[in-house]
Structures are given as structure tokens and as C-alpha cells.
UniProtKB/TrEMBL annotation:
Subcellular location: Membrane
Region forming the signal peptide: none
Protein name: Major facilitator superfamily domain containing 3
Record InterPro entries: AmpG_permease/AT-1 (IPR004752), MFS (IPR011701), MFS_trans_sf (IPR036259)
Topology of this chain in the membrane: Multi-pass membrane protein
Organism for this UniProt entry: Xenoophorus captivus
UniProt keywords, alphabetically: Membrane, Transmembrane, Transmembrane helix, Transport
Ranges annotated as spanning the membrane: 22-42, 54-73, 144-165
One Pfam assignment: MFS_1
Amino acid sequence: GIPYGLQSSLLPVYLRGAGHSLTRIGFTKILYFPWVLKVLWAPLVDRVGTKRRWLVGTVSGLALTCLSSAALAPEAHIWGVAGTLLAMNTIASVQDIAVDGAAVGLLKGRWELGLGNTAQVVGYKAGSVFAGGGLLAVIDVAGWSWMFMLLTFVYAGVALFVWGAPVLDDENVKQADGSRRGGQGAEAVRPWRVWRKLMAVPGTPWTILYVLTYKLGKSN
């Protein structure tokens, strides 16, 4: 939720205060595009490597993008900042796939699935509020660079926590990973087979069009 809140709430306010035009601020919506494309790399994330490695790698990547953003000032390096935020969205979209895959392997029964879904939604919203409203207060006092340094330390701490989290050693996660790989290893290398199967499901193209239209209207 942090990258979303950062770009939907904090970035427009900060850029407007820095003197950027509304047109340029509006174009920042393009930075969300990796979330639309995450279906392209979802089969790879789901079938190659472990959930721990994907999660540690993506959270560490978010820490590095925040560290890069701390060294850039939007007033003078707007395209550099846009590049780091685009990378942040790409990494966060990969992380989202890994988190959902781990949840599928760990959570059993309606009770656990309900609690897990609640935790994910509430955590996402909390991260969005923290990045939107909370970091606005931080940036007002400490400035752009220190705000991203704070996020760098937050993500670095999360990466260490995930690396040592015993829950990711659970046999359910390993079994879920193994069942997905069994007989389907080629699909990780040739994911277009998965996409072709998906598009062959009746109603899928219209559903995709509906979701994209809904998201576009919601973002506006």
C-alpha cells in the first residue's frame, strides 16, 4: 500500500507545491502501468524460486528504489524520480504475486482465509494512509530526502523480518510450490501457454475490458 499511497496522495500535493503543472502531475498515472502488466510475469513468480526469496528480493528492491529516490530532488530530477517510482511499482506488483501465493499455501479453511484476506486488505489500506497522510507530515518537517531514507529503513527492516520468518518454512508453502512445479515447469519458461489458456475461458476478454474500464474510471 505504500507505493500506491505515495503516488496517489503525497506525490501530486508535493509536485504541485514544487510548481509543476497539473498536466505533468496527471501523467504520473502512467507509473501505475506495471500493475496492469503483472499478469505477464505472474507465472514466473508462481513457479520459479521460493516465496521467501521473492519476498526478500522485492522488499530489498523497494528499499533500494527508496534510497535512489532520496538522492533525487523532484524539482531538478523529475524524470529520475519518475523512473525510480516506476521501478517501485514494478517491484511492488511482483511482491503482490508472491504474497498471494504464500497466502494460498499457508491459509487453510474459511476461517483462516477470511482472517488472512482481512489482514491483507487492512494492511494495504494502512500502508496507503501511512504513505499518503503520514509521510506528508514527515516531508513537511524533514524534506524529500529524509522521507525516503525513512522508507529505506522501513523496507530494510521488513526484508530482515521476512528472511527470518518461521512461517515461510511451513511445509504447506513447500507443498504448494511443489504441486505447481510438478509437470508445469515448462510453463514458467513459456508463460504464454498460461495466458492462452486464460484467454480461452469464455467471457475472459470481456471481463478484462470491464476491469480495465472500472480501474480507469476509479483512478480518475
